[in-house]
Design a protein that fits this description.
five-stranded mixed β-sheet; single chain; 9 strands; alpha+beta
Length: 146
Amino acid sequence: MAALQTGHVGVNVTDLARSTAFYQQVFGFEVIAGDRTGERPYVFLGIDGELVVTLWQQSAGEFPTDRPGLHHLAFLVDDIDTVRAAEERVRAAGARLFHDGVVPHAEGASSGGIFFADPDGIRLEIYAAAGADGAAPSDGPTCGFF
């Protein structure tokens, strides 16, 4: 099998308008297409016309983190300054952060990011492969355990 890449991620949400605004504010996504009027409204979100996330309004309640399934979605960015800029947007959006600021993936690691939840409780991460050296470690493990 040739090298694989994730094509896009589909996320079930409870309020399409709220989630669309959140993902646009935090990630800078544009609406590429969608249908907000059908039985299960949805939008395709992306960057420069490239699909990244599809939001489907077909759920109720908050994402159950105590069941098998998705743990979190992680988005890689170019550098730690981009992570810090994203943190400001996450805070402005009123999202719940799991740690205060940028944290390394492990003690002494250069990679690191921010860890937060979307309006439906889906855990998200924005990280850089390098540049988190010297950032204060979190009060516990990061990505796999928040």
